[in-house]
């Protein structure tokens, strides 16, 4: 007679290794130094935040919350995001990658030349990426504003990753971030002692 309790660990293992599909949306205005980021799981919004770069800091604002918080570029949170993105990069499966941009430098000729250069570099990057992610759909959509100054970019991507890879990358990133923060703290402490002497 089959023991049905064995189905519980089976389903846990299946859920851990089953790929989860995420949709990421990112947009920024480089002239105004602001933008927005959104993360969606199965078309349900997980995260949506606006951000501004101001005085060497990142100001974040939630869609529903008017309060904002400041993150310094050398803070523990930024180090964690950097380490986590490196850990998770090779574990994700890219499905779609679309780049949209609107560029204008006030002069029609210069704007079109600049848009051509952006297209060239984007297509080189996408060609190299296509070699490693052959099944991914990629495209560049450009708009040139000939008579005004604008520099806006938006990125839309669909990726899939297993829950196990997310948890594993998260734990490893926490360990590495704590180690880097500890090394930085010790280095800053040594510099303070040297300055006092």
| Secondary-structure element series | HEEEEEHEHEEH
Radius of gyration equals 22 Å
Strand content: 35-45%
Alpha-beta content class: alpha+beta
Average pLDDT metric: 79
Low-confidence stretches are none
Biggest β-sheet: strands ordered side by side in the sheet: 5-4-3-2-1-8-6-7
Envelope shape: globular
Number of strands: 8
How far apart are the first and last residues' alpha carbons, in Å?
77 Å
Number of helices: 4
**What is the makeup of the main sheet?**
8 strands, mixed
The helical percent reads: 40-55%
Question: What are its keywords?
Answer:
alpha+beta, 197 residues, 8-stranded mixed sheet
Can you offer a commentary on this structure?
The chain has 197 residues and is α+β, with helices and mostly antiparallel strands. The protein is built from four helices and eight strands; from the N terminus they run H-E-E-E-E-E-H-E-H-E-E-H. It has helices at residues 7-17, 76-89, 108-132, 163-196, and strands spanning 19-29, 34-41, 44-54, 57-62, 68-72, 93-105, 137-144, 149-162. Strands 5-4-3-2-1-8-6-7 form an eight-stranded mixed sheet. Strand 1 and strand 2 (34-41) form a beta hairpin. Helix 2 packs antiparallel against helix 4 (163-196). The longest helix has 34 residues, at 163-196. The chain is globular, with a radius of gyration of 22 Å. It starts with 6 loop residues before the first helix and ends with a helix.
């Amino acid at each position: 007679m089959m023991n049905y309790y064995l189905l519980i660990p089976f389903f846990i293992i299946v859920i851990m290794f089953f790929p989860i599909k995420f949709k990421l949306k990112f947009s920024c205005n480089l002239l105004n130094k602001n933008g927005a980021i959104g993360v969606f799981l199965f078309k349900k919004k997980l995260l949506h935040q606006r951000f501004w770069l101001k005085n060497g800091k990142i100001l974040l604002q939630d869609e529903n919350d008017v309060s904002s918080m400041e993150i310094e570029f050398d803070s523990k949170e930024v180090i964690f995001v950097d380490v986590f993105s490196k850990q998770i990069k090779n574990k994700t499966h890219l499905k779609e990658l679309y780049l949209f941009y609107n560029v204008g430098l006030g002069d029609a000729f210069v704007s079109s030349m600049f848009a051509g250069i952006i297209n060239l570099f984007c297509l080189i990057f996408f060609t190299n990426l296509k070699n490693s992610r052959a099944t991914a759909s990629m495209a560049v959509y450009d708009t040139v504003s000939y008579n005004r100054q604008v520099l806006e970019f938006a990125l839309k991507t669909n990726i899939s990753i297993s829950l196990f890879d997310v948890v594993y990358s998260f734990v490893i990133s926490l360990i590495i971030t704590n180690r880097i923060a500890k090394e930085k703290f010790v280095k800053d402490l040594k510099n303070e002692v040297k300055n006092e002497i």
